[in-house]
Every structure is written in structure tokens, then in C-alpha cells.
Write a structure and sequence with these properties.
Structural class: mainly alpha
Radius of gyration: 13 Å
Helix content: 55-70%
Strand content: under 5%
Distance between the termini: 26 Å
Number of helices: 2
Length: 50
């Protein structure tokens, strides 16, 4: 599955879960992934586009 397919699937899931209060959970998971990744890469970024 390509990255376009992944993005479309993510978009559908986000639309389905809109207004269910999972935004803080998703943001926390994204931050955790960045913190985990910093152990194996020289730099990282987390960009949030509301």
C-alpha cells in the first residue's frame, strides 16, 4: 500500500472520529513517536496543521 492510500485511509478515519474527543490522544501519540524517533535520527519535527 502506498503513502497516498495511507493518507486517504487516515483522512477517512479522522472524518469518522470527528468530535469524539480523540484529538489529544492522537497528538500525544504523535509526540511519543517523535520522542521515540529521536533516539535513532539526528533531528525530528512535529508539525501540526489545525
Amino acid at each position: 500500500m502506498g503513502s497516498k492510500d495511507d493518507l486517504h485511509r487516515l483522512e477517512r478515519e479522522l472524518e469518522r472520529s470527528h468530535k469524539q474527543g480523540i484529538g489529544p490522544l492522537l497528538l500525544g501519540l504523535a509526540v511519543q513517536r517523535c520522542l521515540d524517533a529521536k533516539r535513532s535520527v539526528d533531528g525530528y519535527a512535529l508539525i501540526v496543521d489545525t
